[in-house]
Design goal:
Elements: H1 2-13, E1 19-24, H2 31-44, H3 49-58, E2 60-67, E3 77-78, E4 91-100, H4 108-115, E5 120-126, H5 133-145, E6 150-155, H6 162-176, E7 186-188, H7 197-207, E8 220-227, E9 243-250, E10 253-254, E11 258-269, E12 272-286, E13 291-292, E14 294-295, E15 301-305, H8 309-312, E16 321-324, E17 331-341, E18 362-367, E19 370-380, E20 383-393, E21 399-406, E22 409-418
Helix pairs in contact: 4-5
Bound molecules: zinc ion.
Amino acid sequence: MLEKAKENKGNEERKQAEITIGTCGHTGSGKTTLLYSLTGKLTLEHSEELKRGITIRLGYANAEFRKCPNCKEPEAYTTSKICKICGSKTELLRVVSFVDSPGHETLMATMLSGAALMDGALLLVAANEGIQPQTREHLMALQIIGVDQIVIVQNKLDVVSKEEALKNFQEIKEFVKGSIAENAPIVPVCALQGVNFDLLIQEIERCIKTPKRDEKKDPIMLIARSFDVNKPGKDPRELNGGVIGGAIKQGVLKVGDEIKILPGIKVEEHGKEFYKPLITEVVRIHTGIDFVEVAKPGGNIGIETKLDPFLTKGDRLSGNVVCLADKELPTFNELKLDFHQLERVVGTKKEMKVEPLKVNEVVVINAWTAKSIGTIKSIHDNKITISLKIPVCILKGERVAISRRIENRWRLIGYGIVL
Ligand code: ZN
């Protein structure tokens, strides 16, 4: 009886990842290959249209981290249900959800929105290419958002000599000195062949802990993606409602919950334009593994709602925040921040000092998964006020990233704490 109960609990735990880990690093560092090698089988197991549509569009993949009870470390760590060394059944440690962050240089804002959902990160460096400007940008983005559980992955060991690998290792050590990743382990791997994945899983288990989350608080979910899962020409009576994707920060969401999406969509009433929250209902919840009745904080989820799918098409609702329909969350047209300026501009080829902010200057801000353009209205010491083009929903005390246009690109120059 006890055995049975334990087994069922195991199945429940397997239905939603308990943690989200981001993969960062420049375009050629092998992020996609690493994710495919770690998670490939699991994500493509299910083929039902809706499930597949949600999983692919969320841009994440789940992996089961497991351990053989009879083998020694690190060889005992695996993603396989049967130990490849001794043939024993392995035990589940955690289900982990991975999100890929774009390495393309114009997509820094997307990386910052993604970072809001990360509990920890893998920072990839290709041993043959070394530290790139994008590697610096991604590390700074993690630092600014406050993602401090990091494992560094030194990839593509198969294409360099032992001397080159050691030289690259020293380069990485030097690069992280004084940063948030100073004490992060550096795990050499070959993602294509899955070499050293046992050690990688061991280090992730050791260094990236599942944060303590409060499931009793009122739920808050950050929306990173939104989409329409219906194929063109589908019978309107059989249409699925709009789907929102993202992660729950706190509390739980259940099928049947009435929810509010903030700040919502732009409407015009009596000649005035403003953002109006959307109210809808949770119809189905998918975790990238299966449908569940209750979603917890942790791994990314997709929620089918009763919204017209037109409203969720093409990420229209990304950056919005979900709470229960009868609760409130602060929405800001004007943000007051305690501003922290970086010493140097992130991502430029030449080293550049950050010039102080000016009144009337235009900046881009990232607040949770939202991005908005704003104008600096006032500056008093470190306290700044920014008037926003699109309102954002965020809690006081949270971090907001601030970028300025330099050399035709938005580049990180600092962050602010919401006052
Ligand atoms: Zn074994």
